[in-house]
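Forwarding the complex inputs:
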Amino acid sequence: MAAADGSVNPEQNTVTTEKASTALNTKLVKAGAELLLDALEEQGVDTIFGYPGGAVLPIYDALHRRDTIRHILVRHEQGAVHMAEGYARSTGKPGVVLVTSGPGATNAVTGLADALLDSIPLICISGQVARKLIGTDAFQECDTVGITRACTKHNYLATSTQALPGIVHEAFHVATTGRPGPVLIDIPKDVQFEEAPYTPASAARKRSSMNAPAVNPRQIEEAVDLMRHARRPVFYTGGGVINAGPQASVALRGLAKLTGFPVTSTLLGLGAFPAADPQWIGMLGMHGSVEANHAMHDCDVMINIGARFDDRVTGRLDAFSPTSRKIHVDIDPSSINKNVPVNVGIVGDAGEVVTALAEEWRRREKKEVYNSTRINDWWAQINKWRGVNCFHYQKSDTVIKPQYAIERLYELTKHRDDVYITTEVGQHQMWAAQYFHFEDPNRWMTSGGLGTMGYGLPAAVGVQAAHPDALVMDIAGDGSVQMTMQEFSTAVQYRLPVKIFIVNNAYLGMVRQWQELLHDGRYAQSYSEALPDFVKLAEAYGGVGLRAETPAELDDKIKEMIETPHPVLFDCVVTKEENVFPMIPSGAAHNEMLLGGDVTGDEIDKEGRKLV
Amino acid sequence: MTLKPSQSVYPVTKEAEHEAECILAIIVDNEPGVLARVVGLFSARGYNIESLTVAETDEAKHTSRITVVTRGEPSKIDQIKLQLGRLVPVRRVIDVTQEDDALQRELALIKVVGEGDIRVEAMRVAEIFRARAVDITHSSFIFEVTGARDKINAFIDLMEPLGRSEVSRTGVLSIRRGVTRD
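Prediction (whole assembly, two chains):
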């Protein structure tokens, strides 16, 4: 702008322009779809797994115009949610899903329920019909917020564009703080079009469910008291340690080293403590190791860190660890005393509490050195249990045993430090947990709480999307893998070289095993009479198919799979009627495990049969 | 710390715990669906709702107060409170029954149909309970009665043989005495 005398004051001019642009920014209005993406960008989102449809077209249009966020087009919305779970579990960042209204949202429900039970942070954005159409049974309308209320940590219906950015920021806060979980945001189509100013994360409201109190030092002292006086202690760790971030795993290793106590873990906690460590006594629970379950049963002090006394872990509750005093560390106060009454219940982040326990232990150490011989007898007993060699199985030269297949998979990949494993649900999942070993957290992705068949393949795609150069393998079953097989096409499209290792016994193996044990071997509907040719199927999708049928060719085929830079379906044909052992039969206690070879068919009594 | 029995489906030797009524005041953000969240939690986890009252109570803060009467052993009540605490719009959960002498009131409208002696008796009982007749015909009364839940229950029971034909109750309202604020 020229001054009255005709001269131009450049300095003043700049200032005015700057002022004008800031003023413009706060008042700058944008369409809801753009505001959504701005908010996602501010939250650091780099990848969205989604599927377009009528009610999210404005969002897809906005995505099309920017290249800051990569979109992975899935084949079914359930796949999108599992991919986001795989992404979240392997990176520690929340996964993001974008689906349309009606069937888009209902297809996502299984994945949301899965993420809720396993405490995985997710943001699911769903389209909704325009506000004035809500409640009219419009095309592709459903009560998404109503349907997903029970399978999300929290959900929102964005009733105005003005509120949308703030909702997105709060959703990320809710999903990632406290006990993590999935959060859904339902956005009516007209809200995506309407214009409003942006709300930055710093200005957004951030509620979360009741905050965990600060770690209580008195309880830490009480816990360390119990630990130092224990003669038969055991650490029982869970997914909470993984969720608390890598520093929690480091803290756990430190505390274990300090105390010398044995460490076991739930299915979801594998990797928080290294399997190669001599203090590691294997996974516990229904198909856990003999040493872990006996240690749980006979211990005098149990230190539960980030696990929730799930029924697959405790078995029969009135016989669960009858002689122990129990310490329970959980970030969710409702987990404490829910299933199992405990003596010291500490609410807090697993990493923080473990660090506090270690500090307190060291403080005591200055006063009185811990006499580590206290637990010598205990270790002698544990080593006796170890001597049972509970994962022993009959090897074969002619047919591939499923356990052998996974052992070889482990042996041929253990030298690498970039291996990520996902699984489906069933026998292969348990064998993977038993025979594949993990040294680090965030490397093992499995559906524990909900037990979702079809989880592993899309989860592997999600992991690979986050770690393009890593070796990502889905240890799958022939039944489960067919539930989300279509996502192989996604892997091909985005050149995500996932390895789908199908342990193919032509049975719904875990169902068959239960029918053998509980229903006198009447194998109702558990035999897969019409399996596809997985090799041809892989080729049809544009991937690579491999098959191994004998132990002799297994190693070479596995190596070929690893070296293939494309998505691979590996059909590993294994013995049909192998069972998962050891096993705590339903209705039994931890010290009543079945080992391979001692099954007669009447181990589970009438009461046990009802329990599943 | 006392040991508490479990909610699990697996058999547990239950120590006999005393089941009792419990009044919970739940302060929530007044937003769409919040009542469904609270009620859904009760039904999904198999808890009982004996009565339920809800209305916005703080316009400035957009908060509502939901008063729920439920039943259960102390461990179950603890679990209900903790589960409610997990809901994002729930700001506070107050166990009114744990308070020394929290006020609780309920209002009921009771229609009594009858003629002759029972009509006189109904009127007499109503007087004792300080119930007001708010509608009268030659063959019916509608009484309005307020008071604690037990009093209302007693009044309703007494009206049964006296021609009680319809009952409408508000559910329990409760508030703590003294200067404490929610």
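The interface with chain A takes residues 1-13, 29, 32-33, 36-37, 40, 44, 75, 78-79, 82-83, 85-90 of chain B (CB under 8 Å).
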